[in-house]
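queue> pop job 88
queue> type: inverse folding (structure -> sequence)
queue> payload:
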């Protein structure tokens, strides 16, 4: 007889993003052109986002409004948890590319740090993208992005960093 292991929902990973529920202010610093590996010019702008649970805690949905260069860009993130593998998949979409849902990144948290990776493409060149989440405190979170152009053997320096501070 195979022994059934029961995992409490709060311990299986589905609550990993609960810390991000609420309203947040973002201070963003990103390379002016994240697709240009030689770019050294950084731009800074602000954002706000709201995040809440969906599907009885098996996912969450976030809406964001960013203001790069005086423009307004709306974005949304869908995160879904798979209990059997204890992993999250994260999809991003924005008003910059209407009708496009990015391929998901996948990963999990280990303590207060989450690493999520997945395929992307720039001008026909396949790359990997990595999202890094760091819970710094109950009211401060760091989200960052970097790329790998060699299948994950090496990773570029960060090309986007958002410091999120809780509003509500």
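queue> result:
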């Amino acid at each position: 007889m195979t022994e059934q292991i029961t995992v409490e929902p709060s311990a299986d990973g589905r609550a990993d993003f609960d810390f991000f529920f609420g309203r947040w202010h973002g201070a963003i610093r990103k390379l002016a052109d994240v697709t240009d590996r030689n770019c050294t010019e950084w731009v800074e702008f602000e954002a706000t986002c709201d995040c809440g649970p969906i599907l009885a805690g098996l996912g969450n949905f976030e809406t964001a409004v960013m203001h790069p260069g005086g423009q307004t860009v709306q974005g949304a993130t869908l995160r879904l948890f798979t209990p059997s593998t204890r992993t999250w998949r994260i999809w991003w979409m924005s008003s910059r590319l209407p009708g496009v849902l990015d391929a998901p990144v996948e990963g999990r948290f280990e303590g207060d740090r989450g690493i999520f990776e997945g395929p992307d493409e720039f001008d026909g060149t396949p790359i990997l993208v990595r999202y890094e989440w760091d819970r710094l405190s109950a009211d401060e979170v760091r989200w960052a992005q970097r790329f790998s152009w060699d299948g994950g053997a090496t990773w570029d320096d960060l090309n986007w960093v958002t410091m999120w501070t809780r509003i509500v």
